[in-house]
Design brief:
single chain; alpha/beta; 5-stranded parallel sheet; 12% strand
Length: 202
Amino acid sequence: MNSYVKIAITGGPSGGKTTLIEALKKELGQKCAIVPEAASILYRGGFPRYKEAQAMIHAQKAIYFTQRELEELICIVSKKNLIVCDRGSLDSVAYWPDSEAHFFSAMESSKEKEFARYDWVIHLDTASVEFYDTTNPIRTETFQEAWDLNAKIKKAWEGHPRRVIISHNEDFLSKMTTSLAVIHAIMAHKSADEIKKEILQC
């Protein structure tokens, strides 16, 4: 059994993932280790972005395997009790141009194996159109594309036993406060049902 808790922070573009992770770095400091987003590392490093189906498959394979190696590396070397991942492996399903079954066949994996990699999944919904952030230089999606991706990512993680969905809130600070409260509750060993009852419904 792992000596750490691993959380995947996921959701559609402009959901607040980066802001939440930066807040965690400041609030928890040395108490947690952050696994950076594989896609950002690859695309900022010059990995080509094409819209053709085969090109998207190669890109998502690169992201998936980079993500997996990053997670294993951080889990081994950090020795922290809390590992926070900027996105999780199943996010690639939302960008995969073929079926979910084809994705798992290509990766030689299964939904159950991918679920088992994460103790918790926190999904941050994409912001509404009025609050959609277009300042990220590697974000190429229109609002509608982001909204559709948000739904696909949500579906990809459907069935994870400890998934918490945090809906869009026009008060972004409240959304971040709720997200941090969820993580503190996880660290306090509360169950998914307790979190949903005590935090998300208050």
